[in-house]
Every structure is written in C-alpha cells, then in structure tokens.
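User: Predict the structure for this protein chain, please.
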Amino acid sequence: MGTHALERREESPVRIGAAAGRHLRWLVGGFVFAFLVPFVLADLLELPRDLYYALYIGGVAVFFGVWVRTTGQSLAVMIRRRWVLALVLGLAIAGLLTLVVLRTEDATLELIGALLWRGVAYGLADGLLLSAFPILAVFAMFAGTKLREQTVGTLAVGLAALVASLAMTAVYHVGYSDFRSGKLRKPVAGDVVWSVPTLVTLNPIGAPIAHAGLHMSAVLHSYETDTFLPPHE
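Assistant: Here is the predicted structure, written as structure tokens:
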C-alpha cells in the first residue's frame, strides 16, 4: 500500500505537467482561432455582418465545448463557482461599460431589433472567447501545483491569466483590418474591465455578461458604430 502511495505521489507531477501542456496547446490554438475567424471570414471573404456573427458564435461555442470536454473540465462546476458574485460583477461591469458607450458614440435611431443578435448573442460569444476561455485555461494549467497553494502564487497566476486575455483580445481584433491601427488600444483597455468578473470568481458567466452589456448598449445607442461591433463596413 505504501508503494502504491509513493507511485501516486511520483506520478502526480507528471500528470499535472501533461494537463498543463494540454491547456497550453489549447490556449495557443485559441489565439490562432481568434485571429483566423475575423481575418478569413470578415477581412478576406467580407461576409455579411450577421452571417459572420452566426459562424463566429457557432465556432466559439464549439471551440469552448470541445476544450471543456477534452480537458476534463466540469462546466456545471465552473458555472456554480461563486455564481452570485459572478452574476453581480457581470451586471455591474455591464452597466459601467454601457456608460462608456454612451459617452463615446453619437446616438442613432436605426434597427433596435438587432439587440438580441448583435448585442446579446455576439456579446456573449466575444466574452467567452476573449476573456473566459483564456482566464480559465491559464488557471487550469496551474491547477494542483504548489503555486496555487500560496496567495502570492495565485495572484501571479491571475496576472498571467489577465495577460492571456489581453493577448487574446488583441489577436482577435487584429484579424479585422480597421483595428490594425491605434484603434486596437480601445478593446485591449476594455478587456481589463470586462474580464474582472471571471478573473475574480473563475466562473465563465461573468465576463460574457459584462461583454454582452457593452454590445447591447452599442446596438441601442449607436447601431452603426465603427468601434464596438466589428466587422465594420
């Protein structure tokens, strides 16, 4: 029995390392996916905006679902984790981002009916890919390590997760031709805000809710915005 316990202790670092490697490969794959989707579908093929959204939303759902399944994550456990705090923070950040939109763009009166599609659906997909996925993947990479057992170590992992989210946001927006400019600073800066709910709670629902609030307010306040709802004409 003692021998088996020793073998389990000896194999544990190997298993942890293998799991971290899988999450790292998925994270790198996420960067590739985040760039290629807008670059190919919006920039090269110039698909109609709503058709592009349909393909993007479906792709994000499949990508995140396969990551959860193949890496042994429990979506139910993740969603239950600090869900009240995640919901409160998500809604609070959504309200804050609404104010940002209202102060940034001039209002128009066009096609408010796009609220659920361009606002909610597209916003949730963006928040899931750009924030929730990279943050959860980085924390999963370090799950079970001594680093997570220390407060300083957990903060360091959190900082790495935020950097990964910022990088994912930058890579994704560079896929759009009009964001290959100084405009890139806006979504990258915004990512620091809308990532907070998931970063604090490690619940995947927080950042998508916050991001959906940004998109919904952009649809309602400035339907043809050239800042918040890419791809732009």
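Confidence is low (pLDDT under 50) at residues 1-11.
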